[in-house]
Design goal:
mainly beta, seven-stranded antiparallel beta sheet, 309 residues, globular
């Protein structure tokens, strides 16, 4: 399948030096600056101006990440951004929840840390969607516990998209400080999701509709990047303690809620070290006076491949 290791990328893909931390054990976290205290990031509040004042994935288990933080040259990749954004126009409805106004495609890629090779995995033939890829969250998704969902694949035309390649590699740079990610091939889950609404009585809902973790290895990371957001209200993101999984942000005590924020600009995003925190996105509604709206998001998951032999 498409090997995109040779695709030009404007990001520095040199991996951070891995640590000797035990598997899944986060580094000791220094005291938080006052502006980074749990609950201090109110919805819509601007991020601190100085990068040292921001949460980081390695230190805190989560971070707000924008294009500039990732080193992605958006001007050089304008055409690739347009191609990727266009790919959201024909996402099929979620086959497991057709009434949620959620549309999606999903594919696996494999990354070899010792060579830097990144290659998409062919999907399985499917009569309805052409090819599909299995999506598994064990018991961490209360709406589909232990269900092996088969989701429509991302089209091969996007596998070589330079922006997609740059975002995957930039996210890897945020995770490869963990030494255990250097000893096995890595699964990269690439998820295109649209929440779309038409009419004031309709709502689009993510899955699951609560704070959650994505499950799997303690070395799992999840990154989200906003592709587009038009004519909607809602869609607030929240990051909370791992123990908050299964609850809604408004039900939590202040010390359990790390951050609440809106992603409004292209490539606004965040990253989480999955087993250390939980994350959430609120339902999307149509903005007042608008006829239709949508929120297009790219989710990139990173986890070690664990063979059964």
């Amino acid at each position: 399948m498409d090997d995109i290791r040779s695709a030009p990328s404007p990001v520095d893909i040199t991996a951070p030096v891995p640590t000797d931390d035990p598997y899944g054990s986060p580094p000791a976290a220094p005291a938080r600056p006052a502006g980074d205290a749990p609950g201090a990031a109110a919805a819509g509040a601007p991020a601190p101006d100085h990068p040292d004042d921001r949460a980081t994935v390695r230190r805190d288990g989560y971070a707000r990440l924008r294009a500039a933080d990732l080193g992605v040259d958006t001007e050089a990749l304008t055409g690739d951004f347009a191609q990727l954004a266009h790919g959201y126009q024909d996402l099929p409805p979620d086959p497991y929840a057709p009434d949620t106004n959620r549309y999606r495609r999903y594919s696996h890629a494999v990354y070899l840390p010792w060579s830097g090779e990144l290659s998409f995995v062919p999907g399985a033939p499917d009569p309805a969607f052409g090819t599909v890829t299995e999506y598994w969250q064990d018991e961490h998704n209360p709406e589909f516990p232990r269900v092996r969902r088969r989701l429509p694949d991302i089209p091969p035309a996007l596998h070589g998209n330079r922006l997609l390649n740059a975002l995957i590699r930039a996210d890897l740079d945020q995770a490869l400080w963990l030494r255990d990610l250097h000893h096995a091939p890595l699964y990269i889950g690439v998820h295109m999701i649209t929440l779309a609404v038409r009419g004031q009585q309709r709502v689009a809902v993510s899955s699951p509709n609560c704070l959650h973790q994505d499950g799997g290895s303690p070395a799992t990371f999840t990154f989200a990047h906003l592709i587009g957001c038009h004519n909607i209200s809602g869609g607030e993101n929240a990051i909370a303690t791992a123990e908050s999984a299964g609850r809604r942000p408004d039900t939590l005590p202040a010390d359990a809620l790390h951050a609440r924020f809106m992603m409004t600009e292209p490539l606004d995003g965040y990253g989480v070290h999955d087993h250390r925190v939980s994350h959430y996105v609120a339902p999307v509604h149509l903005a007042d006076g608008k006829n239709s709206g949508r929120r297009d998001i790219l989710i990139i998951g990173i986890a070690p491949y664990t063979p059964g032999l």
